[in-house]
Write a structure and sequence with these properties.
Distance between the termini: 28 Å
Mean pLDDT: 86
Strand content: 5-15%
Structural class: alpha/beta
Strand order of the largest sheet: 3-2-4-5-1-6
Helix content: 40-55%
Shape: globular
Radius of gyration: 23 Å
Order of helices and strands: HHEHEHEHHHHHHHHEHEHHEHHH
Number of helices: 18
Low-confidence stretches: 163-172
């Protein structure tokens, strides 16, 4: 049993109380949404990534009312993707929450696409994260820096001391400083022959910050990312870098997708992202939203958006509804399921602060939730975990 399992479980309980998604779920607290559609999506990402860049595009829509488990299901997608095999290629996975007002603009969307990404591979992801933590000098490795270190070690073949004792010695730190010099990085990038000047400059600043983090290198990176995003050129430059760094696919997870309604600028921008095929990375779009997304089918209001993302007769797309909590006294009653999960957790971690779901407590929770129809997962967990 992992030494930190208690802490991971405790954080999961805290997140559930606050209506937030959880990442650690060894015991089955979450009833998985999306079912077959999610498994098919993740296997599709893996198989197409293994084949390398082919210019394929796919759309998956996860539909539920507010509190229906959309955010948790996107977290599950990220987790299941990490369990797949990708051969010699990698997937770039990014998540964008349209509840964030910055992200509903074209420039903000592109910045989040860059900043909130991670990479998934069959081989060395954990070692890259360890190296990045060491380079940054703290326990949490920033997403952009992790991908930057991967790009440095893959496309530029830069050898970085690992996270062992060497890095803690003066020699190891000097080595990291040496390989992180702009002149050294620029020379290696020039040898790649990237066709895009924007991609070359972005790669220089990105790798420079990832290998030699400082206020100046971070400021230089942010300034250029802002400039490219304002010009709508960030994603194009990013794709050139990813392809030369052995990425096969890009997965874009979009939460609160109903916020696309009445936002023609952003739907047009998504169409331009989908249609840009100069690099031919595989693109997977996963939209999680309410049934308001049906309004996006209007060609008068949103042009060709539906043809590209929603019409299964014209594009590779799939929609699946997410299930609400079941609080009826049936074989798949979620209250009984959670009672049994809590019992297993309490047996392994007796000190964890979770309530005992006695028959009387379950009846009280059921009565409480029956007054709140339709029941959201947030309301379900708030009632179940009430002290």
């Amino acid at each position: 049993m992992p030494a930190n399992e208690f802490e991971l479980l405790n954080q999961s309980i805290i997140n559930l109380r606050q209506g937030k998604p959880i990442d650690f779920d060894k015991y089955g607290l979450i009833r998985r949404g999306g079912g077959e559609a999610i498994e098919d999506l993740c296997q599709n990402v893996a198989s197409h990534t293994r084949g390398g860049p082919q210019g394929e595009t796919y759309s998956t829509w996860l539909l539920a009312y507010y509190g229906g488990g959309k955010s948790q299901t996107l977290s599950d997608v990220s987790r299941i993707l990490r369990e797949q095999q990708y051969g010699s290629f990698k997937a770039f996975v990014t998540r964008i929450d349209l509840n964030n007002s910055r992200n509903i603009t074209q420039s903000g969307f592109q910045i989040s696409l860059f900043e909130d990404a991670s990479f998934i591979s069959s081989a060395h992801a954990e070692s890259v994260i360890d190296i990045t933590k060491t380079v940054l000098g703290h326990k949490k490795a920033e997403s952009a820096a992790v991908v930057g270190v991967d790009i440095a070690t893959t496309a530029l073949n830069i050898k970085i001391p690992g996270a062992g004792t060497l890095v803690k010695e003066a020699l190891g730190k000097a080595r990291i400083w040496y390989v992180g010099r702009r002149a050294h990085i620029q020379k290696k990038i020039d040898a790649l022959g990237l066709p895009s000047a924007e991609a070359r400059e972005l790669m220089i600043r990105w790798v420079s910050y990832s290998l030699s983090p400082s206020r100046d290198s971070l400021g230089a990176l942010n300034e250029y990312v802002d400039r490219l995003s304002n010009n709508g050129a960030l994603f194009s430059a990013l794709k050139h870098i990813l392809k030369i760094s052995n990425y096969g696919s890009v997965v874009i997870l979009i939460d609160q997708a109903e916020k696309l309604v009445d936002n023609r600028l952003l739907t047009d921008h998504l169409m331009s992202i989908r249609d840009s095929d100069e690099v031919r990375l595989n693109l997977f779009f996963v939209f999680a939203g309410t049934d308001r997304i049906d309004e996006l089918r209007s060609e008068q209001e949103y042009g060709g958006f539906a043809r590209r993302f929603l019409d299964a007769n014209r594009c590779e797309t799939r929609s699946t509804p997410l299930s609400a909590p079941n609080i009826a006294s049936t074989p798949d009653d979620d209250l009984i399921r959670i009672r049994d999960v809590f019992a297993r957790i309490r047996q392994d971690h007796p000190g964890l602060p979770i309530p005992r779901l006695t028959d009387e407590r379950i009846r009280a929770v059921r009565e409480d939730l029956n007054t709140r129809q339709p029941v959201s997962w947030a309301a379900f967990w708030k009632s179940v975990l009430a002290t």
